[in-house]
């Protein structure tokens, strides 16, 4: 039962404080599929434990937002547990960025795999960290054979290796 909520939480969920006071938070802000997770966290509270967890939060308009919830048991002056206190941090934008980055990474990986050109990536030390299927066909090494190996030890003719290393170091 909501006893208090600050302005930040009210803005997160889109309600006025008067609309949520004395109401069951799980009925207002929780999706059905997340009830088990919340029950697990409430069980910890009843045992006197604090925890931090992520949950989707349902807003007044039905929009899904994401929060990191830090929950702790609340005690009265005599040490009796009287409920819990929760701090909700809106991480909706971060979740969206993670999702978008994963999608872009997936597209880039697919492009890397289907390219008709040999694509090779190296780290700052010149070690191969990516080697696409076309590179396997052109150079004759499998990805497994070259990952972690210096590029100059595989594809650069010996007479040009020192110049390659010098150029890489100045890049």
Can you walk through the features of this model?
By secondary structure, the protein is of the alpha+beta class. The protein is built from eight helices and five strands; from the N terminus they run H-H-H-H-E-E-E-H-E-E-H-H-H. The strands form two sheets. A three-stranded antiparallel beta sheet has the order 1-2-3, sandwiched between helices. The longest helix has 23 residues, at 92-114. The N and C termini lie far apart (61 Å).
How would you summarize what this structure contains?
The protein has 171 residues and is α+β, with helices and mostly antiparallel strands.
Largest sheet: 3 strands, antiparallel
- Distance between the amino and carboxyl termini: 61 Å
Kindly report the spatial arrangement of strands forming the biggest sheet.
1-2-3
Rg estimate, integer Å: 27 Å
Principal-axis shape: elongated
Number of helical stretches of at least 4 residues: 8
**Average of the residue pLDDT scores:** 89
| Helicity, as a percent range | 40-55%
Strand content: 15-25%
């Amino acid at each position: 039962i909501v006893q208090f909520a600050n302005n930040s939480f009210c803005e997160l969920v889109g309600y006025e404080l008067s609309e949520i006071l004395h109401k069951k938070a799980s009925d207002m802000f929780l999706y059905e599929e997340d009830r088990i997770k919340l029950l697990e966290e409430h069980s910890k509270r009843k045992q006197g434990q604090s925890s931090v967890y992520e949950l989707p939060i349902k807003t007044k308009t039905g929009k899904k937002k994401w929060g990191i919830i830090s929950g702790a048991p609340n005690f009265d002056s005599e040490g009796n547990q009287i409920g819990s206190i929760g701090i909700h941090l809106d991480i909706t934008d971060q979740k969206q960025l993670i999702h978008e980055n994963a999608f872009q990474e997936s597209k880039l990986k697919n492009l890397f795999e289907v390219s008709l050109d040999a694509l090779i990536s190296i780290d700052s030390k010149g070690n191969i960290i990516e080697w696409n299927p076309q590179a396997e066909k052109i150079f004759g090494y499998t990805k497994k054979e070259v990952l972690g190996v210096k590029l100059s030890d595989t594809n650069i003719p010996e007479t040009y290796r020192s110049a390659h290393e010098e150029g890489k170091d100045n890049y």
